């Protein structure tokens, strides 16, 4: 079984979608589209009557709903709120939640089909050091796999290379990067699949990601 990603073209590239009960990492710089792609993934599950939860460590629920209102295809998010779709805002700093406590919260959740965490590297600020962050990350991934399929959003610099110093890429089952590529001097949003366990795919070929007031989609344009 595969889990559809919310992006048709990405499903095609990944032989139907993400592997089931796996943890995917979606990394990229600010404004590359992580939050909106995360919402597409969550909405796709909600439409299929799956239980879905979008956990936000940054923006408030209201801010996220507002972001969805700027894209027509995401307006439907509101329809599922309070039904099979929840947006949980966990303001770590204000509520004094450590990374360990965050994992306990996740582990206490009932079965959920799809989870998004926006963004996971924020948890680094709430663990003692880099080493304990990695250990906790492994623990978090274990808990997530017991719940369902997850997409972890990870904020990086708007730099061409994937930040491989991040532990997240090593621990996750799949790694997708969003990046602005300079094409004929015009920056173009693009998506690159770096890693996808249990899947046959074309690694490292960038595809154009379009965001407009209608939709978010991957085009057939392969950037070479
Ligand atoms: N209706 C729209 N038309 C065109 N671009 C949009 C629209 N809505 C949002 N965007 C673009 O999407 C970007 C935000 O994407 P977002 O998912 O929040 O990025 P990230 O989470 O990676 O920081 C904005 O910077 C904006 O440029
Ligand atoms: Mg975001």
General form: globular
Contiguous helical run count: 8
Share of helix among residues? 25-40%
Query: What is the count of distinct domains?
Result: 1
Please state the CA-atom Rg, rounded to the nearest Å.
Answer: 16 Å
Give the SSE order as H and E letters.
Answer: EHEEHEHHEHHEHEHEEEE
Give the bound compounds: adenosine-5'-diphosphate, magnesium ion
Spans of at least 5 consecutive residues with low confidence: none
* Strand line-up of the largest beta sheet: 5-4-6-7-3-8-9-10-11
Tell me what the structure shows.
The chain is α/β, with parallel strands linked by helices and 224 residues long. It has a single domain (2-222), classed as P-loop containing nucleotide triphosphate hydrolases (Rossmann fold, 3-Layer(aba) Sandwich), CATH 3.40.50. It has 8 helices and 11 strands. A 9-stranded mixed beta sheet has the order 5-4-6-7-3-8-9-10-11, with helices on both faces. Strand 8 (174-183) and strand 9 (186-196) form a beta hairpin. The longest helix has 18 residues, at 130-147. The model has no long low-confidence stretch (mean pLDDT 92). The site of adenosine-5'-diphosphate has 14 residues, from helix 2. Magnesium ion (MG) binds at residues 34-35, 118.
